[in-house]
Amino acid sequence: MKQLWQQRLRQHHKQMLKYSRYVFTEFFMIAIFIFVGAVAYSYSNLLDTIHAPLWWAKPGLLILFVALLSVGRLATLLQDADTLFLLPKERALLTYLLAARRYSLWLPSLFFVIMLGALLPFQVVATNLAPSSSLGLFVVLVALKDGQLWLQLVANYDDQPQRIRQWRVLFYLVAAIVIAASLWISPLVGIGLAVVAEFGLRLYLPRFLASAVLQWRTAVKNENSRMLQLYRLINLFTDVPQLSGKVHRRVYLDPVLRLFKGNHQRTFGYLYLHEFLRGTEYLGLYLRLLVIGAVILWFIPLWWIATLLGAIFIYLVGFQLLPFYQIFNENLLVHLYPVPLTNKIQSFQHLVQGLLMIQAVIFALVMLVSSSLSHWLIFVVIELVVVLLLTRVYFPRRLQPEK
Amino acid sequence: MSLEVEHLTGGYSHVPVLKDLNFTIPEQTVVGLIGLNGAGKSTTIKNIIGILTPQKGTIKLNGVTLAGEPETYRKSMTFVPETPVLYPALTLREHIELTIMAYDLDSEKAWQQAGDLLTRFRLNKRLDWFPANFSKGMQQKVMIVCAFIVPADLYIIDEPFTGLDPLAIRDLLTIIEQQKARGAAVLMSTHVLATAQQYADRFILLSGGEIRAQGTLPELKQQFGMTDANLDDIYFKMIDEVAQ
Description:
The complex is a heterodimer. Chain A is mostly helical. Chain A has helices at residues 2-23, 26-49, 57-68, 82-85, 93-104, 106-126, 133-155, 161-184, 187-211, 216-235, 254-259, 267-278, 281-299, 303-321, 341-370, 373-399. The relative contact order of chain A is 0.07. Chain B folds into 2 domains: 3-76 and 156-243, Rossmann fold, CATH 3.40.50.300; 86-151, no CATH class. Helices cover 40% and strands 22% of the residues of chain B. Chain A binds chain B through residues 245, 247, 249, 262-264, 266-267, 270-271, 274-275, 277-279, 328, 331-333, 335-340, and chain B through 49-51, 70-75, 77-79, 81, 85, 87-90, 94, 97-98, 101-104, 130, 132.
């Protein structure tokens, strides 16, 4: 079981490393550096204006620390198929889960170090806490996190969701008391309390686990939801295969869908629009590029560079949407519909043209703020020309099957 | 005359799976396409629905070939695949709407027909659900509904009886009877011989890409020289012949 955990962990790391290459691109790192620099600069400015002691400093820290505890969940790396294949190994799985719990403590601990380090100047200036108390607070936070992970592990054995919720509330209450004691009395008191709580937990746990039955489905569901959160985060930067192909009802978009009046000639228009608005991959791609493009245009002072970039962005989006044309190729029925191919091409062309027009309008609105009217008009004309050239001239040629 | 297949030879590569098939499916007839796995049932169907192009021979539906008048040909026929094919992004209601658009149906009439079928299959309360999340049997019902709201001349059903519950099988057979009475032809491939024997008018027995025999049950009995046989017996006789 221990081997299984290590194998899973290796796989997980490999996968995360793969994604991190796409997330932490040079571009992104530069942006992060600038962002961190800007935050640090305004933080130090803020510190200069503070006159100690601030009455809200300690309550603020209390709330922040309790909130910090919600970072990081028990990572079990369980998979759907485990509910079938590992079933006979239920007892042995505890070793696996214990290893998983120990591992899950690392990332939050690192996070605490960074946050406590960042808060140290504020803490020294705004409160009467000694700098050394940060060390004590760190121990308190890690001890609490440790207890929380135990509870999350136990939750996988509990078949009553209500009791799990009660335990969670209880945990945050205890955590708030312990942190408050460390802030107002002394971190040593906090450590003492945390040790007592931890001790009680460890006394109770073996007895509970000895007779508990693992709730396989809950355990796998918890892990899946954790991974889903992670994938969503990564999906902001790059495509995650586990997320693509997912479909969401997006009821709020139904009015848009209703605007589309379908008929025989527009059969494929109906299909493409529904697929686009409810799918994840292409909508995400479109919105990502749209937002990035708009932000970049906002920061570019030179109008002709902005015009060029706007055109490039429209071209890029149009080009990236091209494979969307093929999305129904796997579906047998599509090939049987008595709808001529020209209608399909036309429908696709209309969809992309509409999307690029929306993009052009949003870009134009952004440009309206910063440029003069004449420059703005040139911008609009050029964007329109690009949209029309791409969808009216290039697309029909590209999509026409070779004879 | 509904479907005419003449000298059909075809397959996936240069080696043809089907060898010189000849058969017709007249209107108001239910034809069972029967054969072992790999006998060429699916390939035959693929050629008829136009996913594969015949290497030799012609397929005419109401006297029209696919290459000649693709829209007319396609409009006269619908297909229920063995594995349901659904759009993940469309609800059940939208699947029906799409079918109405694609086949250019009269919306009111089609919805009336759809209402009947949906009630029959107990799907009428699920119109706003995604069929992609349904169980396999229910997905198959969706496919059947979408195929049968089209007033086609030929319905092709691949393995209709696997995955459906007994009640749904009975309902499907009723629907087939209704369409037959209206004048449509039905071609179904199946392994469930007892049901096929009961409900099909004619049979095509495929073996190794060739038609071993075709006709009504009495005709088949005569061809195989088995006066007291049912379809099962004839089927196994055919298999034994091949084994020898």
